[in-house]
Specification:
The chain is α/β, with parallel strands linked by helices. The protein folds into two domains: 11-148, serine acetyltransferase, domain 1 (Orthogonal Bundle); 154-270, UDP N-Acetylglucosamine Acyltransferase, domain 1. It contains eight helices and 15 strands. Helix 2 packs across helix 3 and helix 3 runs antiparallel to helix 4 (66-79).
């Protein structure tokens, strides 16, 4: 049996220094990566500037030049410091809870779940500051290039881990109420098609949503609950319970588990 991975303990204040140190080590180890590492991390003085450079590089299209995208992202970052702080918490979430991630630079440079979420945070700021058309434009570009479709009005907390993220869909009135939520690929926080107005799920802290799970309607997923892979959830899930199946039913009690569950395996439907 393999020994458990020893994970470094990094505080929020250490994120930027650690990220830059990792990039320097990677550049020494693999000089061919310098054209990636230098413009996205090494040439910058702050995490916010590096974040802007990385996100700008992900939105490449013929309709808006990269410089315009860069200015748009900078507008959001310079007016809302919480976007930068949440981006740092999200990096730490991968290090804490993703067994495949052993350094901060991996999600920052390569994981579209992390990158797509940060672009959503930019779009969310635009949506609420008189630039809804630009927010929808950004959403469409992320959807086309990354396969992640998050409506800019959706509210999402911090310390969020979106693993793989293929075909992830989060609707307009969805709210990830709490922090430290983990979601795998093909998760849907959607509507039932029967309602208008507030019609999407509300997810509390410490929730783990397995691959392919569909949570539909204005339902509440309680604190530290688990939703099994491939499940269809149509009703509220109380705190600390595990649900699975189609339609989802209670199959276990995870009371006593810590929030921010380590994803050492995918939840499967029994």
């Amino acid at each position: 049996m393999n020994a458990p991975k020893i994970r470094p303990s990094i505080s929020l204040e250490q994120v930027w220094c650690t990220l830059k140190e990792e990039a320097e080590l990677q550049q020494d180890k693999e000089p061919l990566l310098t054209p990636l590492l230098f413009p996205l991390i090494l040439q910058h003085a702050t995490f916010a500037k590096a974040l802007n450079a990385m996100l700008s590089s992900k939105i490449q299209c013929s309709t808006l030049p990269e410089d315009a995208i860069h200015k748009l992202i900078n507008l959001a970052l310079s007016n809302d410091a919480d976007i930068v702080k949440k981006a740092q918490f999200d990096l730490l979430a991968f290090l804490d809870r993703d067994p495949a991630c052993d350094r901060l630079s991996l999600p920052f440079l390569y994981y579209k779940g992390y990158q797509g979420l940060q672009l959503h945070r930019i779009g969310h700021w635009l949506w609420h500051n008189g630039k809804s058309e630009l927010a929808l434009y950004l959403q469409s570009q992320v959807s086309a290039s990354m396969g992640i479709d998050i409506h800019p009005a959706a509210k999402i907390g911090k310390g969020i881990l979106i693993d793989h993220a293929n075909s992830l869909v989060i609707g307009e009135t969805a709210v990830v109420v709490g922090d430290d939520v983990s979601m795998l690929h093909e998760v849907t926080l959607g509507g039932t098609g029967k309602d208008i107005g507030d019609r999407h799920p509300k997810v509390k802290s410490g929730v783990l949503i397995g691959a392919g799970a569909k949570i539909l309607g204005n339902v509440i997923i309680g604190k530290n609950a688990k939703v099994g892979a491939g499940s269809v959830v149509l009703n509220d899930v109380p705190d600390h319970l595990t649900v699975a199946g189609i339609p989802a039913k209670v199959v276990g009690d995870c009371r006593g588990n810590q929030p921010a569950l380590v994803m050492d395996h995918y939840l499967e439907t029994p």
